[in-house]
Structure formats: structure tokens, C-alpha cells
Amino acid sequence: AKEGIVFATGDGEKDDTNQLYYPWGLSIDQHDYLYVADHSSHRIQRFPLKKD
């Protein structure tokens, strides 16, 4: 998860991209990014599924 970026956050806390607190939903887009909705951290994280 070190390659992930915080896409959206709403809790005012520090953006630790290497931790998920309570992942709730997953989605993959047409560009091969995985999106993880992290319920308890109030954010969505994006992770590349392919290396450039």
C-alpha cells in the first residue's frame, strides 16, 4: 500500500497511505486503479494495479 495515494479524505487526520482502518468498498476503473473506501478514516484511497 505504499504506492497508494489518498484520493479523498474528510476527517482532518494525517494522511497515512500505508494503513486502512475499516475498508468498506472496492472498485476498479478502466485505467486499472483500485479504489478503496475506508469507512472509519472517511477517505477513498487509489492504488495502481499495474506498474508503469
Automatic annotation (TrEMBL):
Signal sequence region: none
Residues in coiled coil: none
Family annotation (Pfam families): NHL (PF01436)
UniProt keyword annotations, A-Z: Repeat
Protein name (Swiss-Prot/TrEMBL): 6-bladed beta-propeller
UniProt source species: Rotaria socialis
